[in-house]
């Protein structure tokens, strides 16, 4: 693994519900600052919970996590994983974003929620598997769909 890059995954809880415009403003700021810092990543938001992956130089990402920890817009920040990485998974995104569907009207039969696999107490292997699934889900939905001929 390269000591030059790390990936940090954290989860936190919003201090109050985020409306679309507040998230858009937050994302615009994050994207601009992340580009200046050479930080890439992904942000997922659902039902007042954030999951974020940040990639970059260890000192830069660690400082950024501490800055985020002090942000009053959320609380209970927990770092789930901090790993050295050989290459970025989100090299094209200063901050990719997706809101996740709310199942307040009921969960479909047979549905397994990778987002919930990242709850407190999840072991590192469960967290890595859930993150791989969420990353794949995100990437599939971020590429323009191709129609058949």
Report on this model:
The protein is an alpha+beta fold. Helix content is 33%, strand content 26%. The chain contains 3 helices and 5 strands. The protein has a 5-stranded mixed beta sheet with strand order 4-1-3-2-5, with helices on both faces. The chain is globular and about 35 Å long. The N and C termini lie far apart (42 Å).
Structure summary:
The protein is built from 3 helices and 5 strands, in the order βαββαββα. The protein is an alpha+beta fold and 149 residues long.
Attribute tags:
single chain; 149 residues; alpha+beta; five-stranded mixed sheet
Helical residues, percent? 25-40%
Q: Give the averaged pLDDT, no decimals.
A: 75
- Poorly predicted tracts of residues: 107-112, 143-149
Radius of gyration (CA) equals 16 Å
Number of helices: 3
Terminal residue distance: 42 Å
Sheet having the most strands: 5 strands, mixed
SSE class: alpha+beta
The largest beta-sheet arranges its strands as 4-1-3-2-5
User: How many runs of DSSP E, i.e. beta strands?
Assistant: 5
Strand percentage lies at 25-35%
Taken in chain order, the helices and strands follow as: EHEEHEEH
Global shape: globular
């Amino acid at each position: 693994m390269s000591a030059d890059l790390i990936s940090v995954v954290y989860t936190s809880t919003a201090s109050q519900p985020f409306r679309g415009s507040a998230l858009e403003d937050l994302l615009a700021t994050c994207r601009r600052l992340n580009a200046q810092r050479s930080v890439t990543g992904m942000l997922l938001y659902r039902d007042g919970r954030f999951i974020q992956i940040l990639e970059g130089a260890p000192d830069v990402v660690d400082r950024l996590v501490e800055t985020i920890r002090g942000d009053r817009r959320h609380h209970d920040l927990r770092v789930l994983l901090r790993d050295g990485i050989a290459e970025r998974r989100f090299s094209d995104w200063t901050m990719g974003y997706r809101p996740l569907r709310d199942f307040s009207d009921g969960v479909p039969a047979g549905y397994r929620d990778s987002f919930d696999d990242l709850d407190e107490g999840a072991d590192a292997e469960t967290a890595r598997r859930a993150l791989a699934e969420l990353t794949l889900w995100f990437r599939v939905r971020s590429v323009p769909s191709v129609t058949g001929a």
